Amino acid sequence: MHFSIPDTQDIKGEGNSTFTAYNIHVNGVFHCAVRYSQLHDFHEKLKREYGNAVPGIFPPKKILSLTPLQVDERREKLEKYIQSVSQDTRIASGPLFNGFFLSAQQETQKQEAEDVQLDIYLLNGHKITAQISSTDQTDDVLEVVASQIELADEFVYYFALFLIKEEDGSFSIIRKMQDFESPYISLKTAGNKHRIILRKSFWDPAYDDDLLEDRVAMNLLYVQAVSDIERGWTLATKEQSARLESLKSKGSKKEYLRLARTLKYYGFVHFKPCTSDYPVKNTKVIIAAGNKELNFRVRGEDGQIKEGSFKVTRMRCWRITTTINDANSDSEDGEKTTDLELSYEYLVAREKLQWIAILSEQAILISICLQGMVDELIMKKQGGKMKRPQDRIRGKRSDFKRRDGNVVKSTDNLFPESPTDESASAAQKAKDSVKKISDKLHSVKPFGMAGHHSSSLHPVQIHTDKLQSVSFKQPLRAKGPSALVENDVFEDIGDDDL
Question: From 264's CA, which of 63, 282, 393, 459 has a CA 20 to 30 Å away?
């Protein structure tokens, strides 16, 4: 997760009073606006719960009113504090952390709890309507959807909810939804052309084997595999495509999935074209994440596509910064422009680390994908298993301070009530539909079948020429603090391993 506080806002209080609110962004998207006093109260609760294990330094109180410069200094310190706390897995996955940010989102968006319907989509365009509360957090909604389609408890968290944006006949993934947000509120504030989809949340294709014997889980995998192949995210030769079509027409889903797993980029997430300083400055590159690596595709001077891979186990750390480009002729108004930059320190040879920078509007999503692959590697190394609904941390509800100083109970609805007749009917309808989701692929227009950004690369011959190592290029100057993410699976390797 990437937390930032890029700015503040003045909010009117009682009478003619005003107060400063700090705008907290999560994964590049505005999440909530909170006062210093709310964050201080949150910090005190964390200390009572975790003691000296709470990381970071919380900025102290001031007796006198702050000057604009002091407000900005406090903003930076609060940002560093939240970044430190959010990188502590035990704290960030706990009910206190999730409850605070969920409560802050609800207050900021002025959302009261009410019964609502939320549409969740599969990658073939099929819609599942969930009967939820408007303030339900992400895991609650995921479990409601899983229950409606009769997905076994042991497989629920093999999947996740993702916010996407439809554009030009395709779609781009905005982010994986987190448990400290309400999907209903997040979708409502995201605006038009956004949807919430259900897709698998794991990276290692070996986990597919766990799902193949469960009818519902296998169908969900099958729908995603078909979608990824049809939109060009997973590549197949003419012979492979013909074989896949034959298996699909026969309804041989397991065989289809087994063949799909052998294809290039199976299970990868693709990003929009962006710019990197590797192998040279201002290189236009298409990046995909999967199979424990970042894959770079670069069009050479001869028009051929060359590719290179950066293993996550060789990334010592990475960071995200906001970069500022000086005014130039490319800017219509001659003003400075701001971009996101992801840079990582990579072990290119024995005792040789090199910083590689990516300038992309999806830099935060790339970072989240890296962290997801790292977390999965750690879980497997420690012999862990996928979370189940009964494994969720269900702590007692906490009291959180509001902007006006009053206290509100967290609204984590961890135990949904039994469905009404209406919702039970909707559940049965959803269950019956999921049984047929893979049979309707020809009648439903899948997401992303037109105008996808990577279509210009196909059909081309993919060369596996390794990109040559180059000296590190100076990154664009950065504004504000950036969170440095240390990689817990970084491995020392020798030259022969590169």
Answer: 282
Q: Give pTM, 2 decimals.
A: 0.80
Tell me the residue type at 156: V
User: For residue 462, what are the β-bridge partners?
Assistant: 305
CA 163 – CA 175 distance, rounded (Å): 6
DSSP 171: E
**Residue 128 DSSP one-character state:** E
CA-wise closest residue to 99 among 158, 154, 150, 38: 38
Residue 242: strand, helix, or coil: helix
User: Which amino acid, 142?
Assistant: L
Taking residues 77-94, what's their average pLDDT? 92
Dihedrals φ, ψ of 99, to 5°? -65, -40
Helices marked H in 30-87:
36-50, 68-86
Query: How far apart are alpha carbons 274 and 268 in whole angstroms?
Result: 17
* Contacts of 486 by beta carbon, 8 Å cutoff, 6+ apart: 316, 317
Q: Is the predicted pLDDT of residue 337 greater than 50, yes or no?
A: yes
Cα 133 from Cα 112, distance rounded (Å): 10
pLDDT digits (tens, 9 = 90+) for 183-198: 999 999 998 899 999 9
As a whole number of angstroms, the distance between CA 232 and CA 448 comes to: 9
Residue 326 predicted with pLDDT over 90: no
Residue 358 structure tokens: 């990516």
Q: Which residue has the tokens 């692929």?
A: 441
- Six token digits for residue 428: 């049965």
Task: Give the whole-angstrom CA distance, residue 343 versus residue 359.
Answer: 9
SS in 3 state form for 407-460? EEECCCCCCCCCCCHHHHHHHHHHHHHHHCHHHHCCCCCCCCCCCCCCHHHCCC
